Amino acid sequence: MALTHSTLSLLLLLLLQAFIPLSAVVVGVRRQKGVHHRRRPSLEANQTSCNLFEGSWVRDDSYPLYESSACPFIDPEFDCQLFGRPDSDYLKFKWKPINCDLPRFDGVGFLEKMRGKTIMFVGDSLGRNQWQSLICMLYSSSAGAKPAPPATQIIKGDPLSTFKFLDYGVSLSFYRAPYLVDIDTIQGKRILRLDDISANANSWRGADVLSFNSGHWWSHKGALQGWDYMKDGPSYYADMDRLVAFQRGLTTWSNWVDANVDRSTTSVFFQSISPTHYNTNEWSDPVSKNCYGETIPAYPDQMRVVLGVIKSMRNPVNLLDITTLSELRKDGHPSIYSGDLNPSQKANPDRSADCSHWCLPGLPDTWNQLFSTYLS
Question: Where in this chain does the record put each Trichome birefringence-like N-terminal domain (predicted)?
Answer without folding.
Answer: 49-101
